[in-house]
Prior knowledge:
Protein name: Endonuclease/exonuclease/phosphatase domain-containing protein
Strand content: 25-35%
Largest sheet: 4 strands, mixed
Organism: Acropora cervicornis (Staghorn coral)
Shape: rod-shaped
Structural class: alpha+beta
Radius of gyration: 33 Å
Strand order of the largest sheet: 2-1-8-7
Mean pLDDT: 73
Amino acid sequence: MASELNATPKDIRVGHLNICSLRNKIYELRLIQNICRFDILGITETHLNSTDADHDIHIDGLENAKAEATRITTSTETLIHVIATNKTEFVWTTGVLPLGITDHSLVYATLRLKRKRPPPTVITVRNFKQFNSENFKAYMELFDDMDDIPWVWNQLFRGVCDSHAPLKEIKVRSVSSP
């Protein structure tokens, strides 16, 4: 039964079951949960009949993610229980499992909730691994006049740095590792 869910450990398992006489079937429910290991299991005990129109229970913005019969009797098969979602791209698998403890089948969905990693940011930095501070000081000491040093700094800094600490582009993760 659990293999029919087709879920990986990273998936979230959601199930729903409508049961009459819930108290009499609690042992079976515990057994089902032990086998299927749902992350979310909805259990209801409610009755719908033909006087409830589809448009009365429709929720705007949600789509039905499955179309299998969920209530099966000897004479009819009816889709009563739905899995409604506004993000159908997250629904990996859906289905129903007839359990035999009720005429309503268990309804389940497996969701894939992997978030796409944002692209890395590319920044430009100076590589100071091979920076020679003595050579850098020698360039700056070529000028004796103190007024020339700020001008040299402003005019030649990039050229001096390019020869001693060249620019390189690196990728920075958008989301850092913990």
